[in-house]
Amino acid sequence: MSNNDQEADNLELVFKQKRIIRSNVRQTLKSMDPSLRSQEDDIIQSIVLEAPWFKSSKRLCAYISCSALREVDTSKLLSQILSPAPDGNKLQTAKILYVPRVEDKNSNMRMFNISRIDDLVANSMNILEPASVDADGNAREDVMHANDPVDLFILPGLAFDRSGRRLGRGGGYYDTFLKNYKELAKEKNWRLPLFVALSYSVQIMDEEVIPVTPNDVLVDALVSPTGVIPITSAALGRMKP
């Protein structure tokens, strides 16, 4: 057997293992008590909102949670970021927010700037996304064409472990996007943003249970109902109490 054949067989084994874990985690999430899920949603979002590393982030990317996919809720995070405070100012320091839009079925995703929740519209799968142009017909800023770096990515996923491995839903959208952004940051000599995933307690696996390929991007930290789990040296340095 050639090296190429061996690599192909190894990749197929990894993909098979991922499919099995995805199926198991989906079933676990489906059977999760709705009141417990709601409670964990509130705890996770409160942890993020109160964290110094979140408060100090000026430019961030965050996913729009979909209840049908049983993702950790981000509605309170987005509302706090985008809603003016009573005195007319945004929460903490003013933040610039980018949210994802799936472009096609080939793992291509973009992140566009929005300034209010009403900037989101439901796509064919009833998932909220930003239109590529605003209400006035002006093109929204694409984070890949922005002049300044992002401080923080808030990421979804199906399963995670404490070594930073993340299992997505199989489309490869986030891994492709994060890899491209890391390349852009290197080209621009920018400091990499923190990649922080939000996880229900049932989504955290034992270490090395989640198989990885060279295209998988690891996360810097997890936020679960029990608190923040910093993983990389970047997270340990920037998430100090």
Fold and architecture overview:
- The protein is of the alpha/beta class.
- The chain has a single domain (3-238), classed as NagB/RpiA/CoA transferase-like (Rossmann fold).
- It has 6 helices and 12 strands.
- The strands form 3 sheets. The chain has a 7-stranded mixed sheet with strand order 3-2-1-6-9-11-12. The protein has a 3-stranded mixed sheet with strand order 8-7-10, covered by helices on one side.
- The radius of gyration is 18 Å and the shape is globular.
- One of its GO terms (molecular function) is ATP binding.
Structural topology:
Blueprint: H1 3-30, H2 34-50, H3 52-55, E1 59-62, H4 75-82, E2 96-102, E3 109-114, E4 120-122, E5 128-130, E6 152-155, E7 159-161, E8 166-167, H5 173-188, E9 194-198, E10 204-205, E11 221-224, E12 227-230, H6 233-238
Q: How would you summarize this macromolecular structure in one to three sentences?
A:
The protein has six helices and twelve strands. With 241 residues, the protein is α/β, with parallel strands linked by helices. The model has no long low-confidence stretch (mean pLDDT 91).
